[in-house]
Amino acid sequence: MPLPNFQSLIDRLRAAQPITDFHAFVGFDGYVDKIQKVVESKSALGNQYMGGISELAALIHSLSGKSGQIELVTEATKIGGNAPIMAHALASLGITNWCVGTLSDPIFEQMHPHCERVSLGPPAESNALEFGDGKVILSEVSVFERLRWSYLAHTIGIDTLRQQYAQSQLLAFVDWANLPHGNDLWEGYLTQIVQTTPTDNPPLFFFDLCDPTKRSAKDIREALDIVARYIPFGSVTLGMNENEARRIYLALSGHSPADTIRLSQTPDLAIIAAYIHQHTGIPTVLIHPTDCSLVATSEGICQVAGRLVPHPKVLTGGGDNLNAGFCWGLLTGYPLADCLLLGMASSGAYIQKGISPTRSDLADYLENWLLEL
Asked: I need a surface site. Which of 14, 61, 135, 236 has the fewest CB within 10 A?
């Protein structure tokens, strides 16, 4: 597959209108996120924060059999959840959408005005502890217990769901791992909406299981089987980060996704992407580690190198912004290599500034990236 053409992509972004004709449907979670730092030491001059996750792990290990305090400093309280963050990012790129999730909190009024919020109840809560080498997210998600297909259909209405589906060019279903009845939701939407609602143009379906560590291999395989059943009705993409890809690979291989020994023995990501593509039949398998992105399709593997943001302002939500940029590229008809670049630029611009980028912001980010090259 051809590599992306930076300048051509920048020119097209500059020439694009701020609002597209695309509509999307995104569901089904919602959190209030506290973005936090972990205090390592403090003095009259201020706090020194832990730079790596291993430092926190060592401190917690040292407290085994004892007790102790770990101080957190909240840097921001913001909208959270894969669905709201992705919906907000899509709207920033000009895609009007319905965001369906647990959004009954005033904080979600901060979402982009082109996101029409459809609330299913109060949100979950997360403490996102951010470090220089990653993040640890502590979540309270019991509110998701109510999210079954019957509840969704009753709350929104079958006719409304069908109208939304018929008007959408993108359907994005995310955060399956934290939804106890995620398989019921995805299958219900398939059988009650997709299979019963004719459309003139088959839409793009995007699925993100998120971190499946706590789910069984059987549940994961069932979820992927449901995803594959969407294939006759549109273009289907499965997206994941490196950790998620390796754990999904274990589940498809018949092993527990929580098996840390086998996890360390998993192969190269290109092999994993091809394996997931072949064993599920899902046409497009996207994996986005921190230093590149790649997709596996029937044409093979396409991989594009990324750009690490030296001083990230925020990490939580980077993957959701990447998904939004990638899906915008797919909807616009860009080649896969360009879609990968758009996804990484969307994520990088978000991580660098802490806000979801517009297409003008993407062009600026890509110009700076090109100068570095």
From this structure: 61
